[in-house]
Write a structure and sequence with these properties.
Blueprint lengths: L1 E4 L5 E4 L7 E2 L2 H9 L19 H4 L13 E5 L3 H7 L8 E4 L5 E2 L5 E3 L9 E2 L2 E7 L15 E8 L2 E2 H4 L18 E9 L10 E7 L7 E7 L7 H8 L10 E3 L21 E6 L3 E9 L1
Parallel strand pairs: 4-15, 6-12, 7-17
Antiparallel strand pairs: 1-2, 1-12, 2-3, 4-5, 8-11, 9-10, 9-15, 10-12, 13-14, 13-16, 16-17
């Protein structure tokens, strides 16, 4: 089961195996702010209401609809990406702060700052995003998924020169925190026994300005992660509170733009797709500031 916010503002629920969606019930809506993890156990949707085509109804609102109180990204977490980028394999998760103000929606533009326009440097990273539904602190790996509300698609947009010593002093937070540098959506796939976050296919594709179609850039599986979702939630929660709606971006597979010959960077007039099977697809146009 997955849910999302429609263009006119309604929350809709698409039951597993269904081609249509239904309005979320008032009782489930009341849980969004207070106890989102309980949505999976509530009567989430009104099956007596008129069904809705999910594709036609999809809005521009990011998922989750509320801005995350805390957001983290994980670097160098896919083995094939580590190899392509020539990075050292980390022995512990590499944690990166990412500003919650960078979040934007599944059909909203990615705005490249003026400071990144003189020479192309803005890259794409399709990622599985984990949404916390129950406050987590000092949780074990065994119990970690009990604190997860669900999963969505993220594009961890990154300004590469701001990621190294030329502009960012060698730290990565600034490079990933510009406004609109975190498209999220288009829906939340609720965590339950049938969802294995370690067996999902994810991909990205870019259409350059003036091109006829999209060219696939990334194609991988979450099974290539060094540190799985259980490990990441447990590690991040050590002596640190992860409140509901915390978002964790879990790393990106091989195929990012800066490793390509020649490099492929996002520029005004381009479009980028980020997709995870079973969750949905982000599609964002790229514009200049």
């Amino acid at each position: 089961m997955r849910w999302f916010k429609a263009a006119e503002g309604r929350w809709l629920v698409q039951p597993a195996g269904s081609a249509v969606a239904y309005p979320m019930t008032a009782s489930a809506l009341a849980l969004l702010a207070e106890a989102p993890l309980l949505i999976d156990r509530a009567t989430c949707f009104d099956a007596a209401a008129a069904p809705v085509d999910p594709h036609a109804a999809l809005g521009r609102a990011p998922v989750p609809g509320l801005r995350p109180p805390v957001m983290y990204a994980i670097g160098a977490n896919y083995r094939q990406h580590i190899e392509e980028a020539g990075l050292d394999t980390p022995s512990l998760p590499l944690i990166i702060g990412k500003a919650a103000t960078s979040v934007t929606g599944p059909r909203s533009p990615i705005v490249i700052p003026r400071s990144c326009l003189a020479k192309p440097e803005v890259d794409f990273e399709v990622e599985l995003a984990v949404i916390i539904g129950k406050t987590a602190r000092n949780v074990s790996e065994t119990d970690a998924l009990a604190h997860v509300l669900g999963y969505t698609v993220a594009n961890d947009v990154s300004a590469r020169r701001w990621q190294d010593k030329r502009k960012g002093g060698g730290q990565w937070t600034r490079a990933k925190s510009f406004d609109t540098f975190c498209p999220l959506g288009p829906s939340v796939l609720l965590a339950h026994a049938a969802v294995d976050p370690g067996q999902l296919a994810l991909s990205s594709a870019v259409r350059k300005r003036g091109a006829d179609g999209f060219a696939t850039m990334q194609s991988g599986r979450t099974s290539d992660m060094l540190f799985d979702v259980r490990r990441l939630v447990s590690f991040l929660s050590e002596a640190t509170t992860l409140p509901p709606w915390t978002v964790i971006l879990t790393g990106t597979p091989a195929g990012v733009g800066f490793t390509r010959v020649p490099p492929v960077f996002l520029e005004p007039g381009d479009e980028i797709r980020a997709r995870i099977d079973g969750i949905g697809e982000l599609q964002n146009a790229v514009v200049g500031e």
